[in-house]
Amino acid sequence: MATDRSLAGGLLPYCLVSGSMTLGYGSIYTLLAALRDRFGFSGTQLGLIVAAGFMAGFAAQLFLARHADRGRAALMVRGGVIIAAFAMLASAVATQFWAFVLARLLLGLGSGTVGPAIRRVVITRDPEHIGHNLGRLTAADVTGFVLGPVLAAVAAQVAGLRAPFWLLAVVFIVVLGLAARLDLSGGPVSGDDRRVVRDLWALRPMRSALAMAVAFYLTVGMFEAIWAVLLHDRGAQTWLIGLTLSLFSVPMIFLAPIGGRTAQRRGPLPVVTVSLSVAALCTFSYGVLPALWMLLAVSALHAVADSFTMPGNQVAAAMASPPERASSAQGLLGATGLATAGVAGLAAGILYQLGGRIAVCTTTAGLMAVFVLAAQALGRERAVRPAPGAPVLVGERRSST
Description:
- The chain is mainly alpha-helical.
- The protein folds into two domains: 9-184, MFS general substrate transporter like domains (Growth Hormone, Chain: A, Up-down Bundle); 196-401, Up-down Bundle (Growth Hormone, Chain: A).
- The protein has helices at 3-6, 12-39, 43-63, 73-93, 97-125, 130-159, 163-181, 196-201, 204-233, 238-247, 250-266, 268-286, 292-320, 326-378.
- α3 runs parallel beside α5 (97-125), α6 runs antiparallel to α7 and α6 runs antiparallel to α11.
- The longest helix has 53 residues, at 326-378.
């Protein structure tokens, strides 16, 4: 079953809708200093504005994703895009702290409803190519997150602080037109089961996938919290820090589809175990390597490893869950990641201040190893529903064909 037959119009329109949602997430980082200067916001207020979007995304993925499994995927995708457009319009006219927080809450709510629903469509409509398709969605999401700050910076420079918000509102309106034309049906529909999270948690392969997600997002939270400070303390200039943050995402754009295909072909557990082990070693090395160029070289290897981990985690959740709960499983995976990154970022900042880079990097790498081992222990039970042609066991390597 070819992708262009099972997904009406090909995969590209779905990638455009999914990737557009991360434009708004990334754009705010470029505008934080300008918001502080224009409205007098404190550092704490800026942090709360950013955090509001992630908190709303966490809630949406955990509690709303299940509605896509109940036959409401089209409503979730199109409604989420509309909410995101309203978020940008609210940001464009906001002047008070509470208004910006509300706008970010709306953006997180909109983005958090779109992602799991889109992935459900891709998983259930083309089960033979789950890995490749989820990898392409991952690449689209990363591309949006990378382009968001660039787009916001150019628009603000040309037309002022409000321009990025107006521009993104127009982008979301255009995306809504695209989403309205997509066929978002497909896959078996679940009943109105309020125990869906508990039932998914009862599946050992699903717990294995969640353990891998925790291991991955531990380093994501640490990276976002201390990377800029760590490089600055090693003598890096601001432009170099910004460049590394952008370049870190580039390998994921090109390698995520390969990572997804590899995870489906060989089994997500062995693939992600290798990629997370590499990432843990990289994380540890950030605490002990003496030279700046060494840190940058290791970060490039880390980015390649993450290109396999991100889609591999999604493939693991897709293979571990019944098809009628595909969106719920993806939502639970995403919510777990956001919660882990938030807690890890907070802890990393405190630990870096108290013990320096050796303490925070060693601790993070050690915790990653613990959750990788937990995933190994949990992942030896049969998956509920492997994709056609996929491994029978989540943790078992598939023989070559």
